[in-house]
Amino acid sequence: MAQPDRRKEPGPRQPGPRQPGSRQPGSRQSGSRQLGATEVKRLNRSWRQRSEARVGLLLDSVGQPFNVGSIIRTAAAFGVDRIWLCGDTASPDHPQARRTALGTGRLVTVEHEPSPAAAAAAAAEDGMRVIAIELAQHAVPLHEAPLDGDVCLALGHEDHGCSGALLAAADTVAYIPQLGRVGSLNVAAAAAIALAEARRREWERA
């Protein structure tokens, strides 16, 4: 008479030991904390060492001082080489601009040039490709724009955008893809996105 097979069926596989710092999908990360001031400086230095391309900004009649101050602060964070202030752009010395910039204006070189076309020409003379950020005909998505090498990102007025003269002087016009719930982005937010994308593109190639 055959004996019944009493071998146990294999049970469910038990998870192995978790590696330090690993996290299961859907679980909350434990043990995380904010970096201290020295750690932040060390982290920023590591990214700065990976950044060789020069990045400039051109502001074409950005009229609100708090936007100018916010852009200056973001420019300092992303290592912008130079900012050209054109047309009716608010002064960085305006109290609202200074308050928003939080003293970062000393970290960025600022030039005043009434004509955006002349500022674009100056950026090109300095070896930078001028990329206008605008919802315009024939504009390419920002993630497809030629952001390699030295670039100057140009942004326009809060309501009217980049002037026709600036669009004509730019090497490329790019737009930031959006989902359409609102018509456009705040100019300071657009500047931050464009600067982050320019640096990300460089770091990706490093």
Radius of gyration: 24 Å
Shape: globular
Number of alpha- plus pi-helical segments? 6
Helix and strand element order: HEHEHEHEEEHEH
Estimated helix fraction: 25-40%
The largest β sheet comes out as: 7 strands, parallel
Kindly name the structural category. Answer: alpha/beta
Mean pLDDT: 88
Oligomeric grouping of the chains: single chain
Strand order of the largest sheet: 3-2-1-6-4-7-5
Extended strand count: 7
How far apart the termini lie comes to 72 Å
Task: Tell me the β content.
Answer: 15-25%
The residue ranges in which pLDDT falls below 50 over 5 or more consecutive positions are 1-22
In terms of topology, how is this protein built?
Elements: H1 37-48, E1 55-60, H2 65-77, E2 82-86, H3 95-101, E3 109-112, H4 116-125, E4 129-133, E5 140-141, E6 151-155, H5 164-169, E7 172-175, H6 187-205
Parallel strand pairs: 1-2, 1-6, 2-3, 4-6, 4-7, 5-7
Structural features, described:
By secondary structure, this protein is of the alpha/beta class. 33% of the residues lie in helices and 15% in strands. It contains 6 helices and 7 strands, in the order αβαβαβαβββαβα. The chain has helices at 37-48, 65-77, 95-101, 116-125, 164-169, 187-205; strands spanning 55-60, 82-86, 109-112, 129-133, 140-141, 151-155, 172-175. It has a 7-stranded parallel beta sheet with strand order 3-2-1-6-4-7-5, with helices on both faces. Helix 3 links the parallel strand 2 and strand 3 (109-112). Helix 2 packs parallel to helix 3 (95-101) and helix 2 (65-77) runs parallel beside helix 6 (187-205). It is globular and about 50 Å long. The chain starts with 36 loop residues before the first helix and ends with a helix.
